[in-house]
Amino acid sequence: MTKRITAAALRERLVDGSELALLDVREQGVHYRGHPFFACSLPLSRLELMVEDLVPRRVAPIVVLDGGDEGLAERAAARLDALGYRDVAMLEGGCARWQATGGELFSGVNVPSKAFGEFVEHHFETPRIPPQELKRLMDSGTRLVVLDSRPYGEYHRMNIPGGVDVPGAELAYRVHDLAPDPDTLVVVNCAGRTRSIIGCQSLRNAGIPNRVVALKDGTMGWELAGFSCERGATNVAPPPSEAGLSQARAAADRVAKRFQVKFASRETVLAWQQDTNRTLYLLDVRSRDEYEARHIAGSRHAPGGQVVQATDEFVGVRNARVVLIDPARVRSVMTASWLNQMGWDDVYVLEPEGADGFAGWSLASGPHRREIPGFVAAPTASVGELVRRLSGDETTVLDLATSLKFRDRHVPGAWWAVRSRLESARARLADARRMVLTSEDGALAHLAAPEAAALWPAADIRVLAGGNAAWFAADAPTESGIDRATTSLDDVWYKPYDHAQGYEQHARAYLSWEVGLVEQIKRDPTIRFRAYDGLAALK
């Protein structure tokens, strides 16, 4: 029988300094409505796909939670037990009980990082520029550069006109060549607030001579002010020159000293990898191209800006050891400086060794991959076979991709479903006799196949080989929309620009939510951010 933990006991665990993974197993869109501050989103639907990255050590203490009466926590605990996790407890009464006993519930996603961004702005008085003022300066020919601190995909979708993509921790690494004249105004933006604030303050902490400001409310604020964004831009900041790199390293050294960044040698990290009593994360904070070209085997790509922006997506175990990897030792230092301020105690920068920084390490290339625990391949149908089936016999296609991806495009006639809610699909599709399951790359569909077979025992259940990716790559027919949904559209968080209507309303609500976090965290005694420069720790 699954262990249970009371809300009071959980509060004690959250402040005692020991390792703990607090996992909300509801769908992300439901998690968004309200959860304890330190809860990471681990939807039951995608548990096997995500859990080993979030909780790599099988004996790390885990507490799972749901809203309080869905039974999702019990199902998740049983699944974790089957996967070999040995210290799993359920929050008694879930979020409802947490709130009833005085606990704060925070809406939104990546809440610790978002709240920290607001804390940083208040603590450092990070300067910002309204979109109207930036537009006036642009029109007047003022010497300035706009640096977009988001990953390329977000930047490419929409950006401030003329902006250069320099994600997160890359700012202090590449800025010296982008703004060599100290009279050049540097404007940092993101979609909303957090990465603008952190990016701007990173450059100020690094001590660059330029005036640096954050664009108030990012691209959302820009559009709400009536200005247009560019779409499809490709202006990515180049790697630093030799002189730029020298300046970046000097800046990183200053930051390391000011924010008490700790370093670890290869020998130390190798010893930590053998320590079965502590959880260890090896996070490579360089660009994706650098990581995929060569990286330390077993490390995970976690670009520095995104680690700070979404810590709960990369590190699921509080108080674990975190080692940051960057042979240039700039992006790792900048990232460590922020994690230190967020209250993480055991964050280290890996000391580079050898000409390339990786001497003595076993190396790998390509994207990060993990074996999926509990994965058993189901019978498949090829793209060609499904095309023939759709033109002939009655075959039901059930797509388990996110609702956003399904809405964008999917196999013609497909139904959309959530794996943890297959019973809802069963109610809509009770008479299905031939069924093909699919998902983004097919992995989730394989995991769901036995569950579908139990619900449709008389049906021939197959999985689309290669999933939707294979279907799209074959240039097979597609359609868009989400008319054939079998459950509510709350599997993922919809960003303001993901909504079909009401962008302005959603954008204003999102920005107000971010600003409001700085007051809400004051009501939660488990939250502690850290201030340096001789100041005491404070919220």
**CATH topology descriptor of the largest domain:** Oxidized Rhodanese, domain 1
Q: Give me the number of helical elements.
A: 23
Task: Report the top-level CATH class of the largest domain.
Answer: Alpha Beta
Number of strands: 23
Q: Gap between N and C termini, in Å?
A: 39 Å
Described by strand count, sense and barrel closure, the largest sheet is:
6 strands, mixed
What is the strand content? Answer: 5-15%
CATH architecture of the largest domain: 3-Layer(aba) Sandwich
Computed CA radius of gyration, to the nearest angstrom: 24 Å
Global mean pLDDT: 96
Number of domains: 4
Structural class, by secondary structure, is: alpha/beta
Uncertain segments are 534-539
What does this structure look like?
This protein has 539 residues and is α/β, with parallel strands linked by helices. It has four domains: 3-108, Rhodanese-like domain (Oxidized Rhodanese, domain 1, 3-Layer(aba) Sandwich), CATH 3.40.250.10; 116-254, Rhodanese-like domain (Oxidized Rhodanese, domain 1); 258-364, 3-Layer(aba) Sandwich (Oxidized Rhodanese, domain 1); 380-473, Oxidized Rhodanese, domain 1 (3-Layer(aba) Sandwich). Helices cover 39% and strands 15% of the residues. It has 23 helices and 23 strands. The strands form five sheets. Strands 1, 2, 3, 4, 5 and 15 form a six-stranded mixed β-sheet that branches. The longest helix is centred in the C-terminal third of the chain and has 18 residues, at 503-520. 46% of the residues are buried. Mean pLDDT is 96; it is low at 534-539.
